[in-house]
Design brief:
The protein has 292 residues and is α+β, with helices and mostly antiparallel strands. The protein has eight helices and 17 strands.
Length: 292
């Protein structure tokens, strides 16, 4: 059965422009890692860490190779399995076989610096999805208590050769208060990293003459740990260049200007332990934050 699909944007007809090879899809996702975000809570601060990682017995009966390893915030590592066509139960089975060997990953590379073991999540990505797999994922499927998500990715080209990518995500994660994932501040909802950015930004607005050193005393580095609550933008960009993935908000709309001319970038690496420390410090400074 052939399926005819036509997409228009602002009355411009977009024609399918599929990835010719799986490696091309992989390269696109590495360059555009934000497409791998799964929701607005725990799973939107995504960073690609590595690709094409060999795993012994990764396919249960033989060795395998995972397509992409990524992190979601400071809590999760993710194995991402790509298919150039439909993702289905066979794809899911392949991903699950890689997840069985996930401990190998922590021994093969410097992917996790926290003393607390990472949580895991699996993601399958393709250009379509079977009805059976769609039903599983939308009902909140887990494998050995590891949540699984699916992304359907399609690429299109306009007559003037502009490229458009359309993605659909199939993911149902049941949050609890233990996740410390959703916060209410000033009647707005934030995840961990966005909450920190908002509070630091507002504190500076309320104290416009504060400088970098003084701000460090208000939000000491040990609250977050290795990266600190914030850092100079130049340092944050250096970390991004050296590591290959972001640890701070560094877009112009996300950075914050100080009175001494310094520009700072707040950290994106937050887990339940250090966000609790941040909220304690923010509360002592007069901020009223609620866990949703």
């Amino acid at each position: 059965m052939k399926i005819f699909k036509q997409v228009t944007a602002n009355n411009i007809e977009l024609k399918p422009y599929p990835f010719k090879k799986e490696l091309a899809m992989e390269a696109y996702l590495i360059e555009n890692e934000e497409i791998l975000a799964l929701d607005n809570d725990n799973f939107n601060e995504v960073a690609v860490l590595d690709e094409e990682i060999a795993l012994k017995k990764g396919r249960r009966d033989r060795d395998g190779r995972i397509d992409i390893l990524s992190s979601y915030g400071a809590e999760y590592l993710s194995i991402i399995e790509l298919k150039l066509n439909q993702i289905d139960d066979q794809t899911l089975n392949q991903l699950e076989s890689y997840l069985d060997q996930k401990d190998q990953i922590l021994k093969t590379g410097n992917y996790w610096g926290d003393e607390v073991e990472p949580k895991w999540i699996g993601v399958v990505v393709g250009t379509s999805i079977s009805a059976e797999l769609q039903n599983k994922l939308t009902n909140g499927y887990k494998y050995n208590d590891i949540p699984i998500a699916g992304i359907v990715l399609n690429r299109y080209r306009s007559p003037d050769n502009n490229i458009f990518v359309v993605s659909d995500t199939y993911f149902n994660f049941k949050y609890s208060s233990k996740d410390y994932s959703k916060f209410l501040y000033n009647n707005k909802e934030f995840n961990k990293a966005r909450l920190v950015n908002e509070i630091v930004r507002e504190f500076i607005e309320n104290n416009p003459n504060i400088n970098f050193t003084q701000l460090k005393h208000k939000f000491p580095k040990q609250i977050q740990g290795s990266f600190g609550v914030f850092d100079k933008l130049s340092r944050a960009e250096e970390i991004y260049t050296n590591w290959g993935h972001k640890r701070h908000y560094i877009k112009p709309s996300e950075t914050i200007n100080l009175s001494d001319g310094e520009i700072i970038a707040t950290c994106t690496q937050w887990n339940p332990r250090n966000i609790a420390e941040f909220i304690k410090a923010a509360t002592n400074l007069g901020f009223h934050i609620k866990l949703k």
